Amino acid sequence: MMDLKGKVMVITGAGSGFGREFARLGARQGARLVLADVQQDALDAVSQELGEQGAEVLAQRTNVAKAEELASLAAATMQRFGAVHVLFNNAGVGSGGLIWENSIADWEWVLGVNLWGVIHGVRTFVPLMLEQARADPEYRGHIVNTSSVAGLLSPPNMGVYNVSKHAVVTFSETLYQDLKLACPQIHCSLLCPAFVPTGIAQSHRNRPAELGNQGPATPSQLAAQKNVMKAVESGRLTAADVAELTFAAIREERFYILTHPAIIPSVATRMEDLVQQRNPTDTFTPRPKQQPSS
Q1: Residue 219 backbone phi and psi in degrees, to 5
Q2: Is 70 exceeded by the pLDDT of residue 119?
Q3: Which residues, 6 or more positions from 123, have their beta carbon under 8 angstroms from its beta carbon?
Q4: Per the structure, how many domains does the chain have?
Q5: 290 domain-assigned
Q6: Among 41, 126, 149, 218, fewest CB within 10 Å belongs to which?
Q7: SS3 letters for 169-233?
Q8: Can you give the CATH number for the domain in which 259 is found?
Q9: Lowest mean pLDDT among 102-106, 158-162, 202-206, 208-212
Q10: CA-to-CA distance for 222 and 231, rounded, in angstroms?
């Protein structure tokens, strides 16, 4: 069990949603905080809030899709605190639509944040954590990668997002096995939430201009955004609830964090489809309109 008092927590996507609640809960438990987000005003607000409460905070604007910005964050972390104990690879964005209608820019943006952000976080911070573990037999570290139930299922009209989150699942499961081989002092968890009221439905607000689309959204993309907005806003579990569940998993060194147990039967059905070699079960009723052919 890890006592977080005085430990250094690095959180990406800390300006809103789960990341902000991880930071708030960490501050209440006495952790020292490294907060990263691509949205400067949101990052400043969280940093100011927690700093006024007495938390030690380092805040740095970071685009997790860029390896050099994660490297800069790690350097600043070590310079300020000299250690890292808990890493939350949490930054994420959402996009949908029929899978053949997504542009190259859509793929580059979503994979850049959701997948490459996790890859860059692990490649940058885990070697620092391993170094600390080698130097101190009492050292304990933990990594939490944020995926989604979309990483365990394959709902239609969400292809780009599904791909990014499925990749995080297998990346994290492999990380778990690799850490068991290399360093039992460091553990990891995989967070797979369903719909929770966070800012992900408005994640286009932070989409880089160079990865914007030239034309209007297709009918399927508009439908996906509308459906996600409705589902997110109707979520009963809050981001603070998810943070509590996540910190419990860290204490218990538990890998899978499924915040919505009601999805487990759907996950089991998907596994049964595979084992029985039957066609994927259709769990989605509404049919999005397709972009008219030119």
Answers
A1: -55, -40
A2: yes
A3: 67, 70
A4: 1
A5: no
A6: 41
A7: HHHHHHHHHHHHHHCCCEEEEEEECCCCCCCHHHHHHHCCHHHCCCCCCCHHHHHHHHHHHHHHH
A8: 3.40.50.720
A9: 202-206
A10: 14
